[in-house]
Amino acid sequence: MFTSNHTAARRPTARKWLAATAGFAFAATGAISSAQAQDTIKVGVLHSLSGTMAISETTLKDTVLFMIDEQNKKGGVNGKKLEAVVVDPASNWPLFAEKARELIAKNKVAVVFGCWTSVSRKSVLPVFKELNSILFYPVQYEGEESEYNVFYTGAAPNQQAIPAVDYLMSKEGGSVKRWVLAGTDYVYPRTTNKILEAYLKSKGVKQEDIMINYTPFGHSDWQTIVSDIKKFGSAGKKTGVVSTINGDANVPFYKELGNQGIKATDIPVVAFSVGEEELAGLDTKPLLGHLAAWNYFQSVKSPGNTEFIKKWQAFTKNPKRTTNDPMEATVIGFNMWVKAVEKVKTTDATKVIDALPGITAPNLTGGTSTMLPNHHITKPVFVGEIKGDGQFDVVWKTKGLVPGDAWTDFLPGSKDLESDWVKLKCGNYNTVTKKCGGQAS
Amino acid sequence: MGKFRDRILAIVFAIGLIVSAAGLAHAGPYEDALEKLTTDDYADTADAVTAVATSGNPMAAPLIAALQDGRLQFSAKDKKVFIKTVDDKLIDAETGKPFDGAPPDDLDAVRVNNRLRGVIDAANGALTLMAPDAAKRYESAQAVFKSRDAAVLPAVEKALEAEKIPRVKKVLTEARAAILLGADDTSPADKIAAINIIRDRGDQDSLALIESLPADTPAEVRAAATAASAQIQRNLAIWNTVQNLWYGLSLGSVLLLAAIGLAITFGVMGVINMAHGEMVMLGAYVTYVVQEIIRTRYPGLFDYSLAIALPLAFIFSAAVGIAIERSVIRFLYGRPLETLLATWGISLVLQQAVRVAFGPTNKEVGNPSWMSGAFDLGGILITYNRMWIILFTGIVFAALLAMLRFTRLGLEMRAVTQNRQMAAAVGIRTARIDALTFGLGSGIAGLAGVALSQIDNVSPNLGQGYIIDSFMVVVFGGVGNLWGTLVGALTLGIANKFLEPFAGAVLAKIAILVFIILFIQKRPRGMFALKGRAIEA
Questions:
Q1: Who among A52, A255, A286 is closest to B455 (CB)?
Q2: pLDDT tens-place string over residues A31-69
Q3: How close B323 comes to chain A (CA, Å)?
Q4: CATH number of the structural domain A158-294
Q5: What CATH number belongs to B241-535?
Q6: What is the ipTM of this complex?
Q7: Percentages helix, strand, coil for chain A, rounded to the nearest 5?
């Protein structure tokens, strides 16, 4: 994007302004790492600090910095201090690949924590494969992927979407019979909704009782859709909304729900992308009782969580700073990486990747998560209701930890695939044709 | 003698014990229910609510109200339940008397989930059908209409007799009809009468109710139901069109509000101002800052926060606009490409500056009470915030037209736009007018920001979402023509809302874009093109 600026800057009068503008933008966006000592282990942080996704990703950058700070207080890893290398891919998908290359090839980082959107993850995959490095991906996603170089510490669909739907179907959740699947129009909602639709049909829900709706990114005029949901919901059967609406569009969506008077007792909305951070921009009183499904809530009471929140708020010097699910996933991933590096006594990517499956790390809600051979982890699933103070009240949780399933069992093509990097050395082994390299349809 | 006395005493004691034990065991359903509220289990709480509601205890209504508001506290250790008053005092739920001692240290709120809220609403429905507040009675009658709980029928009939206000009476009648229609022992004639009452209500819920009749319904009832359902559907179709029109008007007004400032800077001055969206964003952040100050210092003024924010947002955005014009844009007049790039750079700088100053996350801008909620108008639902935004857009538009038409500044602005050299020749300081015009456009964008903060995210990205739409409106309406912007915005808004139900939000947006591209091919100067030399900039 800056190339066009430079071309234009050849005109003499405009030059100084454009240079100043571009300089400003550069200086403001890049958090440039300071002095680089020789005997440190470098940790790459690949999260957008500017652009649309900065709203979500900046917190994760702070989380990695916080974890590095904590680890260094304990003496670092293998006797070496950790050093963060922060780059800003500016919510620009091709730039993610460039910045990943810069981190691995130029800065020689041992591991990268980064990406939020699936498209940014897909964009960096070839780089990580080519240069054989490690990426920890901390966000809930649509599954249908398991790569040798990537560790997925966020939820797969069976660790978030499916348990949430199960809850709404249960008596406690209101015995929902009619479903609205509403999402932003991109890969995560589309795949998740495809999986959910297949799952609902397998549970005997009829086609006419499922309404699927997609909206563009940053959609702000929800009047028609909310009134459609209301109409769909007044057909006499208990209706629930499963929302995969992306972060930014949620505030106007919930405001419209509140204004049109849709209460959680009439039509509950369960969201997969709304956490404590998103609620910070909202008056939550009209949303009382609407739901979110996550593997972590700030309100979960456990000694580990209480201590984490205290330290985090001290680190950020903000006593009101919230925590959220992708933060916890980052923390778990970070701790697992530290353990693996300590186990093999090196940061060599191949050795660390081979050591990671089987490594355990405590999660903040009181359990212990394990890295599985398919590079996903075991996590508990919680359903929380929005409270008046912008936090969630956990109303339901799974009995134990749920192992992440890379390939869903509810889509044809994907259900025959299996991922096992320990025994099979393959991320997409087809159990029918007994071949590695099977494709999901 | 002494022995005898001892024995008597012992007997008295024993009787006393038995009596008191019996007293404990038969403390009544209300007291039993209270104990269930201390187990922190949703099923127990649900049982307790039903028991409390039917106990007839005078504390039942305040207890359920407290539970609903999250003010009901319990101590698991002491097995005691307290009602927390609005001013943070504890009342013992058993006795109804203020609690004086030190509150137990494990005091926690009784938790509710959605199923419980449903139970509470149902319990409340019966309890508040006779409430002194008419709005509450109306609400609970609506709740009964939805729940159609046959057990409430006697309460509904009693309330119906006592009810004086026609609005509430109507809903009560409808609620009674809904219950009767669902009951097995209602005679066919009564059922037909019930269908007619529900038909006149005529909304989506009524339609669902009438269509959900069981298969073994007598033929004459079924015929009445079919007719009623057809009539409701006809009515709904008409109201649906009206509703779409309203939504379109509302979307159009938002587009107009965002575009109207651009209509001045781009339309009138010919500056391609990519930082226009950021002026809107700055206006929204001014609203946020004003609300923060009000919240911490003068909470009583909250309902006036928007009125206070409006002039401040205008002044602030206008000042930033003038600063940009004086420092960058004035060097680039007549060079659209450079202007585009420079203003785009400015937009990035402003976004990042706000991100650094306020953080990247959304900021909460509250809706004042007069902008929250909705009311029914015939068969459509009108939300207050959208209604006020439509009115506000109208006022801003009229004020701007009046300013351009009747003030000296407006006259000079028009003169400079129409013929710069001639205007300069008659003594107008064109440079000053340029700055003021740009400031005016930016200031109006700031006003738009105040309004948009009520319906959208207040984040550094706020402006980006509107910049494309704004350009679309101005180009479609006709560059340099405010009326064109008005017609353009409303046309696009309404077209979008009529397409959306059929095509979905994504396709509707694409269709509108394709339409504009084709339209611009046919009429490159938009709907209302200015003629003559005026537009040669």
A1: A255
A2: 444 444 458 999 999 999 988 788 889 999 999 999 999
A3: 14
A4: 3.40.50.2300
A5: 1.10.3470
A6: 0.79
A7: 40, 20, 40
